[in-house]
Amino acid sequence: MSQNMEKIQAEQKTMKSQDSELSQNLNELREDLSNLHSQGFNERHTALRALGRLQEEVAKLWIELRTSNARTPGVTPGEKLPPTLPIVPITVPTTEPATVPTTVPTTVPTTVPTTVPTTVPTTVPTTVPATVPAAGPATGPTTLPTTAAPLSLSSTPGSTCNTCPEQWVSFQKKCYYFGEGPKKWIEARFACSKLQGRLVSIHSQEEQDFLTKRANKKGSWIGLRDLNIEGEFVWMDENPLDYSNWQPGEPNNEGEGEDCVMMQGSGRWNDAFCLSRLDGWVCDRLATC
């Protein structure tokens, strides 16, 4: 009986040692898995930010190339450029590292019975089954846009919502941001994009009157241009040119290179060189609930 008691105690010590070693291994595995996920997240985030900056620079180069070609001898004005490079959705993974349980369900008797049965089994199991669950599936969305969801900037009323971000002005279910500071047209475009909006698209006299009262009196960039095909003006929201407010004699494509549209202090429109710097620029986006 004494020998059997000693054998049981020895088995208990062995199982406790194995349990401690297994727990340590699991902790190391969890730490390695967390580091791996973190490293992959950081590398992908850095790469996607670099891609976004590259796309912005490419778009700027396209506009500068278009305006330069328009003023270069031998280049046909209005010649169609290659298709604009598509904007790749910038997604940032938010998958959290899968977690590994820190404890292992192992049943080990902590005490030895004070009474020993008269009949002692001749064999004692040397192993205790331990079930270690594999890394659980990560939950949650796998992507998170670095900017807000694409905005539909149609002027057609589709909602009664009229909530706008701070420093934006609400009017007829849209929000407007009146930017200040010298910018080229492409710089104004990306400034609006970073604010989760677009260069303004104007579709009614009421909207024009609202903008005229608040826009920079020295002139502001708006979201109208004919960069691809001369004379074919396109709004940033891609809706038809169903309203216009041109200055008499405009657009005239003076110097065969005026492909971006500005709004003068009077509210009248004028086609201008895209590389010119204006003190004002106007963004818009739909209001929210």
**Regarding quaternary structure, how should these chains be classified?**
single chain
Domains counted in the coordinates: how many? 2
In helices, the fraction of residues equals: 25-40%
* Beta strand count: 10
What is the succession of H and E elements? HEEEEHEHEEEEE
- H/I helix tally: 3
What's the story with the biggest beta sheet?
A: 8 strands, mixed
Cα gyration radius (Å): 34 Å
The best one-word shape is elongated
What integer is the average pLDDT?
A: 74
* Regions with little confidence, pLDDT below 50 for 5+ residues: 75-159
Question: Which tags fit this structure?
Answer:
eight-stranded mixed sheet, 2 domains, 3 helices, alpha+beta, 10 strands, 289 residues, two-stranded antiparallel ribbon
Summarize the structure.
Helix content is 31%, strand content 16%. With 289 residues, it is of the alpha+beta class.
